[in-house]
Amino acid sequence: MALAGGRDFPYTGTMTDATGPRLGGVFAEFIAAVIFLTRLPIRWRGAWPKDLDSRALTWFPIVGTLIGAVGGLVYWGLSSVNVPPLLAALLTVGALMGLTGALHEDGLADVADGFGGGRDREAKLTIMKDSRVGTYGAAALVLSVAARTLALAAIASPHHVAVALMGAHAYARAFLPGMKLLLPEARLVGNSANVGKPNSARALAALLAGFVLAATTLTKLPLDGGMTRLAILAVAAGGVLVVGQLARRQVGGITGDVLGATEQVVEILFLVAVTGALGGSVAMP
Asked: Which residue ranges does UniProt annotate as crossing the membrane (predicted)?
């Protein structure tokens, strides 16, 4: 399986077995989403249904919430042993990158290198497919890690960090099925094109699930009213429009890397917007 970040995934892990043909349809979709979005050692035995990749997209925001919850637990554990907020935030971001295999970070770096260094569409696509990280990609990764680290350190409270991470990771992945559905593929054959498009009902379900999950987490934060929460959601959603339009102009549509970059941009904007709304200041060690 391969989609965001241009990385191919074997359907085998090392510990837990998930036997494809005997799994129910919904559970199979969920497991497929977990296999794709994390590095958890899940082994898939049996035939991989042809349309399972596209059906699994529906579960991205649900799995994103669980990923964010893991990050919240990491931050809480570090805080409980008096690790300073800035260091705890950095280690939390690192732990989440380990859990996901830096899947979306890889897409962000490839997009930055391709869009920044390519002279024309074909050159950009060629650069994006190159596994090496260039100057633009390295800069994008540094900015991504720094922005998320500083945002979490500014939020500081372990409870608030946990709910913010859950909302950010759910919301950032909720838009990916819709982008797959609405935007053309930049390549006729590639990681994103091979997955296929979800149907409109599934794309809408993912978007609604992500919106509800993110909105619910925001109610757990000490924010000033519903308009502030809607503003946070709107700011983060704006990142989808920016990346989508940029991708159309630069390479004519989406790739797996573009989807990975979109997740990163939305996640960062969500956390930064939450930080601004809370009025926090970074706690320095």
From this structure: 20-38, 59-78, 84-103, 133-155, 203-221, 227-244, 265-284
